[in-house]
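Q: Got one fold?
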Amino acid sequence: MRSITRFSKVSSIVLALAFLAGCQQLALKRQQNAAAKDAGTPPAVQQAAQGQAANNQQQLLPVDFRLAQEQQDKGLQELKFQDGTKVWYLPDPVLSRADLATAEPRRTKDGRPFVRFTFNQVGAQKLASISDRFPGKYLVLTLGNSLVSVYQMQKPITNGILDIGFANDQEAISIVNRIAGQS
């Protein structure tokens, strides 16, 4: 467990640096698309729209992934489910909104809904490292500090894509909309 604690400290520093670098890709893509559409719009209307976009960016909920395991250990917090099962997780996220490039609802070939989280280059490197070092452990996904899902890492994820299943299409779409600030 000491390796998770050390990893957590290093990850926290890396996450803080990434956050300070302003890597909020989802909001940036929306602003860039809006700017491209507004090329022929009068300056006063553009300024009002930019003010609204900045206001929306401030209202985005935190998106965090925390490392978790089934065994209790020092420094970990308990997460108890309705069925009585428990996992213990690191309080500091190992991945955050700053690491995300996109989140989109999808379906498997047999129709099961999931959300595809595509990470930017820094996030993809972190995900690969975490999943390689901690196979069998979990990523607890929270949105605005509310539990969204728990995903077990079975093998290294080297492509920067994390697919998390949901109960139905509405749930997957709702999660993506909340991440995009459209709740």
